[in-house]
Amino acid sequence: MNNMSDTADIEREIRIMFMRCNVLVTRFKYCSLSVKRVLFRTYVLCLYNIVLWTNFTATNLNKLKACYNKCIKKFLGFCRLNSMTQVAFV
User: Fold this and answer.
1) What is the C-alpha to C-alpha distance for residues 46 and 57, in angstroms, rounded to an integer?
2) Residue 37 to residues 1, 4, 40, 53: CA-CA distances in angstroms?
3) Residues 9-47: tens digit of each pLDDT
4) Most exposed residue of 5, 52, 55, 57, measured as fewest CB within 10 angstroms of its CB?
């Protein structure tokens, strides 16, 4: 970007995370929980370029965090109303 903002890159990562999660949900919905964990870590959490982000707002990071929470709940089969502490102990 001309203004050296990382907003567009963060939004692109959010779209990609949702896309990867949706693909995994449709292909591996009948797998066990341990297999789903490995798949999620391998294919959804490949965020290599976030180290380069320097110019962003807290709103953008909150959107990325919300995206991660929604994806992990959807892929592991939890209700969207469950808290992340319930998801973390599985």
Assistant:
1) 21
2) 35, 35, 5, 26
3) 889 999 999 999 999 999 998 999 889 989 988 888 877
4) 52
56 CB-near residues (< 8 Å, 6+ apart):
5, 6, 7, 10
DSSP state of 31: S
Q: How far is CA 63 from CA 15, 28, 60, 68, 89, in A?
A: 11, 26, 5, 9, 23
CA nearest neighbour of 80 among 65, 64, 88, 69 = 69
Phi and psi of 20, rounded to 5°? Answer: -65, -40
pTM, to two decimals = 0.82
Tokens of 41: 């870590």
- Contact present, 45 and 8 (Cβ < 8 Å): no
All structural domains of the chain with their residue ranges: 7-88
